[in-house]
Write a structure and sequence with these properties.
Blueprint: H1 4-17, H2 20-29, E1 34-35, H3 36-40, H4 47-59, E2 63-68, E3 71-76, H5 79-119
Antiparallel strand pairs: 1-3, 2-3
């Protein structure tokens, strides 16, 4: 059972990944460290809006900030994606199991109904 902290971290990660601008920022950071102004260049939004996106990425721990004098450099941290991937795989396994169990139940019911119809002289 995931802890409340783990759930909160997962919530932050999924929220951060839900926005195309934030995904584009992460994609840029996979190519290497960048300043906030460099990250903002391709977007037609204010620097303040880009900073808000970056704060959400930092809250999710997907982005790390390093200061060198007055400069702020950002880099990509993939570790939260590992936790999100593990959660998604866990959900996929659980739902596959449930759907297979439902399929088996429905097939058993169909077979029982067919056998009952044959006993009564009717064909299905």
């Amino acid at each position: 059972m995931p802890t409340a902290t783990t759930q909160t971290q997962l919530d932050h990660t999924l929220l951060a990944l839900a926005d195309p601008t934030r995904r584009a920022i992460l994609h840029r950071l996979t190519q290497g460290e960048a300043r906030v102004t460099e990250l903002a260049e391709p977007f037609e939004i204010s620097l303040n809006a880009v900073s808000k996106h970056i704060r959400l990425l930092e809250r999710a721990h997907l982005v790390r900030r390093r200061k060198a004098g007055r400069e702020h450099f950002l880099s990509f941290n993939p570790e939260p994606l590992d936790a999100a991937t593990a959660w998604i795989e866990e959900q996929r396994t659980l739902w596959n199991y449930r759907l297979e169990a439902l399929d088996a139940l429905l097939r058993a019911e169909d077979e029982a109904a067919s056998a009952d119809a044959v006993k009564k002289g009717r064909k299905r």
